[in-house]
């Protein structure tokens, strides 16, 4: 599900989605938002201050968020409504729906395998704690 949400945010609404999604969970500073987006993307993307702070200013002007006295940003009612519209659209984007066929499931598995291959290539130690689980899943798949 998170992968589908990530793809939706990246393609459809970009950083705006991730800022509002982060603030849905707790008020945060711009730096905390950058950290959280990086965490949610498994380290694949960290927005720059040059993209976060102008967006925070724009969202404040739109009345979607407000900056508190402690420097943290929080959602307004309008912002909460926008986040809910992202998460509960009337007609959800196809990418947010569960695969409805064997082909769809295989496409999902292929995408996740590609992600793991990228991790192995760029952060080789990150998969070591999971090696037995990965082997177990590979064995299960090979028996199908």
From TrEMBL:
InterPro entries of this UniProt entry? Tscrpt_reg_PadR_N, WH-like_DNA-bd_sf, WH_DNA-bd_sf
Boundaries of every Transcription regulator PadR N-terminal domain copy: 19-84
Q: Which Gene3D superfamilies match?
A: Winged helix-like DNA-binding domain superfamily/Winged helix DNA-binding domain
Q: Which domain of life is it from?
A: Archaea
* UniProt cross-references to Pfam families, sorted A to Z: PadR (PF03551)
The entry's protein name is: Transcription regulator PadR N-terminal domain-containing protein
Q: What is the lineage of its organism?
A: Archaea, Candidatus Marsarchaeota, Candidatus Marsarchaeota group 1
């Amino acid at each position: 599900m998170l992968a589908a949400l990530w793809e939706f945010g990246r393609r459809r609404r970009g950083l705006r989605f991730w800022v509002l999604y982060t603030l849905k969970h707790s008020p945060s500073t711009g730096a905390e938002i950058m950290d959280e987006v990086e965490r949610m993307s498994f380290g694949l993307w960290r927005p720059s201050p040059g993209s976060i702070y102008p967006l925070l200013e724009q969202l404040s002007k739109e009345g979607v968020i407000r900056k508190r006295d402690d420097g943290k940003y929080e959602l307004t009612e309008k912002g909460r409504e926008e986040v809910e519209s992202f998460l509960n659209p009337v007609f959800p984007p196809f990418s947010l729906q569960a695969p409805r066929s064997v082909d769809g499931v295989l496409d999902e598995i292929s995408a996740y395998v590609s992600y793991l291959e990228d991790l192995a290539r760029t952060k080789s130690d990150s998969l070591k704690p999971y090696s037995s689980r990965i082997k177990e899943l590979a064995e299960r798949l090979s028996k199908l």
